[in-house]
Automatic annotation (TrEMBL):
DNA-binding region coordinates: 22-41
Annotated GO MF terms: DNA binding
Gene3D superfamilies, A to Z: Tetracycline Repressor, domain 2 (1.10.357.10)
Protein name: TetR family transcriptional regulator
Amino acid sequence: MKEKIISKASELFLKLGFKSVTMDDIAGEMCISKKTIYKYFCNKEVLIEESTTLVHRQVHEIIDTIVAKNHNAIHENFEIREMFCEMFKNNIDSSPIYQLKKHYPEIYHKVMTHEIEQCSQWFRENIEKGIRENLYRTDLNIDVYVKFYYTLIFHINETTISDKESQQLELEALEYHTRAMSTPLGIIELEKQLKKIIN
């Protein structure tokens, strides 16, 4: 039952917002009593923390699945971006990370500390892969580019209220990041991926 509550809460939080969803809403959606929820979670904050942990685990499982397909590094980044757009397409017109930072800053900081660590590792592996494939330049300072990119992406999510605007800015950031690192071969692949989005 605990896992079912976390799953339903995650869905509602992403769709309607962390602030607006109440324990009553979750109980009503699941046709259970609020008392049942409180049996597992002493308050809403604990449920939000469990829910965000679940969502981040799901996100990283999907990223691992995409990486396992062994696309080239640039294609991989664009497919992961597409996955994010698909995953969050039914939520309210407000970035979940923006909401979390605004209304539940302590949970936000806890989640982000872990998230930055995981994303940094993934960004690093992607850059190393792109260098091996001759899509990214060999003279890159990988540590600097990893830091540039996650600072850019997390800043967009933290400060952009509209989820639609956030997704557009993330695409611009991905293009900017890729162009900065690419060899001529990488630019060809980047243009190919951008053309697929336009079409």
